[in-house]
Amino acid sequence: MQCTLSLLSIELSGLSPERVARAASKALRDSSARSLRPPAPVRSGPCCRSSLSAQATTTFLFLAVQRKGPAVTRSFVRPFSSSLGPQASRRRLAAMAPKKAVVEKKALLGRPSNNLAVGVVGMPNVGKSSLFNIMSRCDLGKVANFPYATIEPEEARVSVPDERFDWLCELYKPASKVPAFLTCVDIAGLTKGASTGAGLGNNFLANVRAVDGIFQVVRAFDDADVIHVEGDVDPIRDMEIISQELRLKDAEWVEKKQDALKKSLRGATGTANLRDKAMKEELDTVTKVLELLQSGRDVRKGTWSNKEIDVINDLLLLTAKPVTYLVNLSERDYIRKKNKWLPKIKAWIDENAPGDILIPFSVALEERLAIEFADDEAGLKAELEKLGTQSQIGKIMKTGYQSLSLIHYFTCGPDEVRAWTIRKDTPAPKAAGVIHTDFEKTFVCGEIMNYNDLKELGSESAVKAAGKQQQKGKGYEICDGDICYWKCGA
Ligand SMILES: Nc1nc2c(ncn2[C@@H]2O[C@H](COP(=O)(O)OP(=O)(O)OP(=O)(O)O)[C@@H](O)[C@H]2O)c(=O)[nH]1
Ligand SMILES: [Mg+2]
To answer: Which tens digit of pLDDT belongs to each residue from 351-366?
Structure first.
């Protein structure tokens, strides 16, 4: 049997493999009609270029086997360089299309964990332990009217209020209810010179380093009976002291790191290997961080690339942690929403820590409400109405949780309604892994509905009937308030 091998070169862009195949088959038929004259290249050149750009132009080589005979009994056409099917070819063509500008997702400052903690930080004797006890509804925090009553840190898990969780509990009436939690740590007071060891100095700073976010309690209440270590009440001075001490400690830490990197680079071979290159990049970032700190700015207020954020996250810097300013007012000032320091504090934050959140509250009021209305929801409501005010504890906990970029999804059923804490941008398998690590390893997909859809439609079956419970794969990033059912393999 005589065979003719024809090498057809088709320069094309954007043609589907099926069209290419049709064109090649036609060329083979034409060539057999011309009795073994080698076929002209089928549609070559710009005529075949579709509207796609020249960049996307490629050359496909086709090997056509043509049997000589009355008819072409068989021809097969396939891309020369690949044995993959049309789907792979389509993917390749898509990859050759002009690239869209890829927006890099901003990395988050801080530890990449779901188990994050907020530390209660501030000058001594400003009400930190009192706030800690109110939030955690326990008396672990050592409250006393003298500075440095707290030495060792105390830790408690406080529940984060969420009206969505309450609504879901109403709907499912579960046997067990588990809300979202935030870990809070009561930390010793900080004084001027702490970065060089004054007061509880380094001890205190090590405790701050161990948490992920900061509740900074600022004293703005007057009470001659409560000693202030600096002699008088001046929240601006106190805020300056705290931020300066944290910055000084960071600068000291970063300088050490810079020296170590310089030393290692001096000992480097001189040949630009990958390790040296990475070290050089790290040194550049560390130097940039040091310059920022020396200019009086906090690390969290800098502009960083994702690579720089990776380096910064390894340094566990104090000023990289998110801060929520909690201004402790007297009960009277809080209720009348007036205090001479408040506008100055706001202006200081706008200038020195723009974007950080300020929450005025009153330890004295919160303490009284917690004691007088411990098990009396209705009484508490009536008292707050009478005073024309509200408690800030829920808002404080919610803000601390959000400052750490924490969100939660729900699992719901008659046995349990539960909120599972994850970090923003967590992909579905990792989110499932919060329940059990096996769920991440054997993840198949998630059946996911949106809380708002459930609330609007009233029941799971209605959400399903409306096609609003959707199956999401590994690439899906969980949104705050999603209601998830995981499907995992064996
Ligand atoms: N009048 C008044 N006293 C307060 C207020 N908040 C706290 N105190 C009192 O201040 C004293 C110190 O409170 P703590 O909660 O122990 O303060 P701290 O910041 O934890 O103190 P250290 O652990 O020593 O740094 C206690 O006697 C509190 O009762 C307030 O809003 N008004
Ligand atoms: Mg204390």
So the answer is: 999 999 999 999 999 9
What one-character-per-residue DSSP string does 67-83 give?
E-SSS-------BTT--
User: Of ligand 1's atoms, which has the minimum distance to the CA of residue 189?
Assistant: 25
Task: Check whether residue 388 and residue 447 sit in a common domain.
Answer: no
Q: Provide the number of structural domains found in the chain.
A: 3
Q: What is the residue with the minimal CA distance to atom 23 of ligand 1?
A: 150
Among 222, 363, 368, name the best residue to mutate to test ligand 1's pocket (greatest count of ligand atoms within 8 A of Cβ).
363
Among 66-80, 119-133, 175-189, name the one with the lowest average pLDDT. Answer: 66-80
Nearest-CA residue for atom 26 of ligand 1? 145
**129/246 same-domain check:** yes
278 found inside a domain: no
- Alpha-carbon distance of 430 to 484, in angstroms, equals 13
Q: Which of 42-46, 311-315, 370-374, 427-431 has the lowest mean pLDDT?
A: 42-46
Helix (H) or strand (E) holding 263: helix 235-266
Alpha-carbon distance 131 to 145, whole Å?
14
Q: Which domain holds residue 462?
A: 425-488
Residue 72 confidence (pLDDT): 35
pLDDT (average), residues 298-307: 95
DSSP H helices, 295-352, are 306-315, 331-336, 342-352
**In a shared domain, residues 126 and 251:** yes
**Distances from the Cα of 166 to the Cα of 125, 439, 468, angstroms:** 36, 26, 22
Q: Is the pLDDT of residue 377 over 70?
A: yes
Question: 195: which 2 tokens?
Answer: 């970065």
| Contact yes or no for 19/52 (Cβ under 8 A) | no
163 and 233: one domain?
yes
173 located within any domain? yes
Which spans in 48-188 are helix H? 86-96, 128-136, 163-172
Residue whose tokens read 């970065």: 195
In a domain, 11, yes or no: yes
Query: In ligand 1, which atom is closest to the CA atom of 186?
Result: 20
Cβ contact 41:77 at 8 Å? no
Beta bridge partners of 436: none
Q: Are residues 174 and 143 in the same domain?
A: yes
Location of structure tokens 């723009």:
354
How many Å apart are CA 63 and CA 76, to the nearest integer? Answer: 8
DSSP 415: S
